[in-house]
Amino acid sequence: MSTTLTIQENRLRLSHDGLDTETLDLDEAALDLFRDWNTRYQILAAQRDEKRQALLQLGSELGEWLNQTGWLERVLDEITAPWLVEIEIKRRDRSEAALLVLNAPWELLAFEGQHLAFDPMAVYMPVRRVGQADESAEPSPFRLNVLFMAASPVGQHVLAYEAEELAILQATERLGLDLRVEESGSLAELSARAAQVEPDVVHLSCHGGIVDGTPQLCFESELGDLDLITAERWLQNPTLCKTPRLVFLSACHSAEFTKAEDSEALASNFALDLLRGGVSAVLGWGSAVSDAEASEFSAVLYAQLVHKVSLVEAVGQARAAVYRRPNGSSDWHLARLFLSKQGGGVLSAGDQARLPLDARYGEKAFLDKNKQVPVAGHEVFVGRRRQLQRVLKAFRASAAQPVLVHGMGRQGKSSLASRVGRRLPELKLAVVYGQYYAEDILQAFKDLGEPEINKVIADYQKRVEQSPELLAEALHCVLSQPCAQAVPVLLVIDDLEQILEPQVGQLHRVKATYQPVLRAVLQVFQQLGGQTRSRLLLTSRYQFTVLDGQGRDLAAGVLSVPLPAMDDGERVKQWRLQRQVLNREQVVLEDTALVHRCLSVAQGNPALQDKLYRLARLDVAQAGRVLAQVEKWLKGGELPSEAEEVRKLLEGLVLEELYGLLTPVEQALLQAGQAFTQPLPCQVLAQLADQAAVDRLLALGLWDGWPDVVVPKLAAAAVNRLAVSLLQPLAEAEIKGIAQRVIVGLWDCWGQAARSREVQFELTRLGVLAGHVESVRAAAGAGLYWAYENLGNYPKAAALGQQAVELLQAEQVAADEVLLLWTARSYQQAGQPENALQFLEQLAAQLPETEQRTRAVTLGDIADIAIQQGNLTQARQLYEEKYQVAEQLAASDTIAHARWSLGKICVQQQDWQTAADHFSAAYQLWLHTGRVDGIVACGLDLGQLLLAADHIEAAQEILQRSYEGLIKLGRHEMAEQVKQAFLQK
């Protein structure tokens, strides 16, 4: 059965198979209603607080208007779930009536006090269609092929796009999904990749918004800067219009209508513009959406699509899953699906990959033609976006600097150089590796096989062999003539550490034998500057000096790009790509716990992770022993005695040799770096020694260089985690002294700009140690919340919270309500209810009258402690008060929780009838809102109470629903216990 709401001029035509067609007038009074609904909805959508009742009220008003002739009620008597409803306009209809109706919050449609999307008799699924529906396009005969790209321009608030990508992978990893990731954030690169992999779905994770009345997406330029993309620019890329069956714009406001210029009338939105431009189906967000809910929605959506569910139904199931998430949802209604005439069906019907892995997938790629320098191939290269963009930005400049990529050994410098070469296809790649004499430089040019270059090289080659000082003249001739325009070259001199020698307290220097060669190369490239299109890229573990004839350091004119260890997201992505390789080789053994140890022990070093993971797949027992040995090494122990490849890699890092090159000041600074959990701005770290010491640790790769986590334009640094093997743990008194020395400078750098809760935790921790009131007052609430959720040590989190509160009180500063709450909860989880109660009572005493929602939460927490202490009478009084507050707020979830808790107290007091009343009321509320966790937990209590009262049939129905809910939540063991105990008798 199909239901269609068609906008035709000033009427809405209501059609349903088997029922007479009806029409509703879209006169000025009706349009005023739609204007009001749309305005109220946008206000509600932007709110993060409890708003379920207001959304239900809005959906009910929409339902009442639709049912003014009784049509909706008659349709609901006819339908079977799921119920698809299409709101349809003509492709060229831009009338105010059409756009107002199309923009209405149809996802909220409610009848008889319930959202129809969650009515099990309806499971209503609204879509917006442009043009009259035709037969759905035939599904792909292959398995689902998704091209994912995240964009995060420099200087913008960083999205949790890694979490969204990983959520998709985790939800579908055993179901058969081809997920390709484009790492650039660039429209041009996305279009090129789409042409290559022919995706069914293009999935974008980025910021979106409305700029000067135009819907736009925040992409990255090739250099990482903000590049605002309009629908018009998107549509100029045919592969992004015709190829994908779905474009998922996981960007805030991507499906929100803009207003016309100088008018309150609606104009368009990004999703609708793409649809009108030829895209088959577009999914977007009707307002700002939280990262967590976007990730959860995406995971469920793709899990459904992989199971060959239609796009329309998959969106409906994802919406329902977000609505029913255990912690509740503010944004379940925001996903909006727009369809063309043929969009909306099953996207893929097969089980085979569209583009099977190339026979060479997973084979080592090489930077050079002689295959001496193995690198990560294009398909398995992950991350490094910011470093790549810095190199490209330098090379795109008119007077380009040479660039040096440096960092800890085996960290992927050569692979990054290879990636740079791929991103600069207009340049011929010439590689120097292993031999660095003058003739080797010329040979790299000769190996290109370009006649014009070879002609110049032939004139100089023998002369340079006899007189190496002529190299500069030869290079100048090559670069200023054949390489100036016609055949520009990217010259990569790789692994320069092979010709460097160390100096205590100073940068490495080029060995005397090679100084004339490198001096000539640097001088020529720096002299030519903007006169040549050719570029010079150097890679080395260490920064270095090379002096010209006047004693000037030529390396000072080279742009330094430090390459840090992989971050957590990059580690996981490398593992998943490597797993594809090993699966192809039919190495099928995988121990999940061992995998997590591999990623942890490797500390973000790509080569070490690769070797440890491969070992874990080949020999679990040996891998366990080797991991234990590496873990001991990281704490200052001996190198592993097994796994020769792993041992050689760690030996090759020459960490002890590097440590021996440090001055006492530099050694102390390296030791102090352990005090921090985040990279800190270099200018702040310099307060522990001096800038020269900071620079030296970065130059040797013992510290990793990062963009600052709060102010990206600032350089930041952190101890390379493998270098920790050199260090002794810091005492608490040492950490406190270090915190006192950096906190003022850190606060000046970060201050109120710190948004990340993890960063706020670091500010709180250091602020408490240093006694810095400003940072603690600003950051402690969010910092304690992060500690509670992520630290994995409740006593430690509780102690930090208490220290923060005491510091503020000593300075007569009121502690933040959030700080008090999460300190109390940390103590509760740590098994110290008396301490928890102290903070909860302080919180209750200082709450203003306006903070009724926090008051309800606090009352419940105090009541839980009273139950622990056996004071049921006090607990019952507190939950009664919480229930009354929740009633005033019309907060349905809080009401349900309060009544369920009251029911459990009444059971302990053997007040059976009152318990049954509370359980029944809570259960009905959770049924109404669709909260699976509430339905399960309360249903188990209510069902057992009904069993005890011999209401067998009603009890069985409720317990069966709890059993099904446990299956949905993935709690299979408990589901089996419920089945055995209650459902098989």
Notes on the protein architecture:
The chain has 985 residues and is α/β, with parallel strands linked by helices. Helices cover 50% and strands 14% of the residues. The strands form six sheets. Strands 1, 2, 3, 4, 7, 8, 9, 10, 11, 12, 13, 14 and 15 form a 13-stranded mixed sheet that branches. A hairpin with a 2-residue loop joins strand 21 and strand 22. Helix 32 runs antiparallel to helix 33. The longest helix has 19 residues, at 28-46. The radius of gyration is 32 Å and the shape is globular.
Question: How is this structure best summarized?
Answer:
The chain is α/β, with parallel strands linked by helices and 985 residues long.
List the helices and strands and how they pair.
Layout lengths: L2 E6 L2 E6 L5 E4 L2 H19 L5 H15 L4 H8 L4 E7 L6 H8 L6 E2 L2 E2 L8 E7 L14 E6 L10 H12 L5 E5 L4 H11 L3 E11 L2 E7 L5 E4 L1 H5 L3 H4 L3 E6 L18 H7 L4 E5 L5 H16 L4 H13 L11 E5 L25 E2 L7 E2 L9 H12 L6 E4 L6 H11 L4 E5 L5 H9 L4 H16 L4 H10 L8 E5 L6 E4 L2 E5 L4 H14 L6 E6 L3 E2 L13 E4 L5 H17 L7 H11 L3 H13 L1 H15 L9 H9 L2 H6 L3 H9 L7 E2 H4 L5 H9 L3 E5 L7 E5 L12 H18 L7 H14 L2 H18 L3 H17 L6 H13 L3 H14 L5 H17 L3 H18 L2 H17 L3 H18 L2 H17 L3 H17 L3 H12 L2
Parallel strand pairs: 1-4, 4-7, 7-15, 8-9, 8-10, 10-13, 13-14, 18-23, 18-25, 19-20, 20-23, 22-24
Antiparallel strand pairs: 1-2, 2-3, 5-6, 10-11, 11-12, 14-15, 16-17, 21-22, 26-28, 27-28
